Amino acid sequence: MFSQRKGENLNGNLSGNLKGVVPLLGLLTAFPAVSTDMILPAIPSLAKTWNQPLAVINLNLVCFFATYGFFLLFYGPISDRFGRRRPLLAGLTLYVLASLLCALSSSAPMLIFFRILQAAGAAASSSLSMAMAKDIFSGPERERILAHMAIIMALAPMLAPLAGGWILVDFSWPWIFFVQALLGVVGFFGVLRFPETLPRVSDTPLSRVMNTYGRLLLNPSYIVMVLVMSASLLPMYSFIAGSSDIYINGFGFSEQKFSHFFAFNALALMVGSLSCLRLTSSIDSRHLMTIGFAGIFLGGLFLLLTGHHGPWSFALPMFMITFSLGLSRPPSNNLVLEQVDRDVGSASSLLIFTYFTLGAVGMWLISLDWADKIPVLGGIALACGTLVLGAWVVLQKRGI
């Protein structure tokens, strides 16, 4: 049910739009995956076309993630001050324009620069979609909505590289960004027809709007939960940056076959989120988080021991890791947001900023000139699984 804190006007405006709220929130949340994963099949060929090392071409991913996370810090508090719609519309407009500029790039530096602009626009989407979910829904209903959003979001990394591979069969890589621009237009008109979800804007002066992060940094339960949950995602982001090199250059796959294996891994995220949605009615969400964190640990161990034996020996442990993330992420996101009673937009932004900042670190690390990326990825997953599972056990004993 809707939160009792919301006003009658909000409920009335949304009553005719609820059928579209979950797809819209899912689309907004999916922009990072669409923006990063659709270009993955083209990365090895771009390195050859522009005669650049793979680490340089991968900067279009690393810089996208870093910029995306940085701008999240601005959109959150601004949305608490002025509402969700206007920042979203501004961000989506920038996203569409930058996507078109990416398509017109003629060198690696140009593409990297325009990807930075694209990330600055896309940053409005995922943090504000999570804040909108908390505006509209409460308690267990919000946890279910976050699980639905995670399922829709999981389709993006599953379909995006497939779409990128198909585009490369008949068209050139710039068409990947033309498609992203079209998705940005769809999101823009979706937000345009949707009412404002924030029932009451903050009266904090714009000059002090960033002070909300000071309050969040003084909330120890929130900060600890953010760091723990963010660390659990590091193996997935490392996989995103290293997967095309592993499958195409390491296992000798074509761009299309790589996209199928990448989609198989993305399927794990959707299956994990679906399992979370089905199991939350019978299993406590905290137990699901424990199972998920243990799965990351075990998947990292298997990946380290057997991942270099062949494509399926690599794909199956990664499936286990990603499934475990899909299982644990909806309840962990909800638990993080439960630690705050105000400044929800800022709390959501800081959470996703931490996700993407650590993700950029993982992408940078796996993009280094390793002789074999598979044991590096396995080591990252094993270390993160050990850290997160251990921290989660300690946090439960302390009553968080």
Mean pLDDT: 83
**Spatial gap, N to C terminus:** 25 Å
- Uncertain segments: 1-17
CATH superfamily: MFS general substrate transporter like domains
* CATH architecture annotation name: Up-down Bundle
**What's the order of the H and E elements?**
HHHHHHHHHHHHHHHHH
CATH fold-level assignment: Growth Hormone, Chain: A
Helix content bin: over 70%
Biggest β-sheet: count, sense, barrel? none
CA-based gyration radius = 20 Å
Secondary structural class? mainly alpha
Concise synopsis of the structure shown:
This protein is mainly alpha-helical and about 400 residues long. The chain contains 17 helices and no strands.
How is this structure best described in words?
The protein contains 17 helices and no strands. It is mainly alpha-helical. The protein has a single domain, classed as Up-down Bundle (Growth Hormone, Chain: A). The radius of gyration is 20 Å and the shape is globular.
